[in-house]
Amino acid sequence: MESTRQRKFARLIQKELGDIFQKDLKEITGNHLVTITVVRVSPDLGIAKVYLSFLPDKGKTEKIDMLRENIKQIRQELAARIRHQVRIIPELQFFIDDTEEEAMRINQLLAGLNIPPAPAEEAEDSEE
Fold it and tell me: How many angstroms separate the CA atoms of 92 and 71, rounded?
């Protein structure tokens, strides 16, 4: 369970990293649209796990690797933006958010289930 402080800090990081990816780091993100879906912050605010999704979906592993290679530059950009608001600039960890893909996989599994209809006796009992 995250504290209010962690949630506020995570929202700040999410907002600022979003701006950084859209405006300052176009050479890294290229023609991909990078969306920060979730930021999870450790209780001591020292580590921020950033979950990203990419559009188009192709080449997302290469893009996340490129972001990880440039993590020092990204952290410096973040520090320049939030240094007057926080004491600690967190270490950043980037992960691919696969929530949407997992949801689609589960939907396909559910759609493929063959559930037989209830026997006639159970249907009559439930109507009463």
Answer: 7
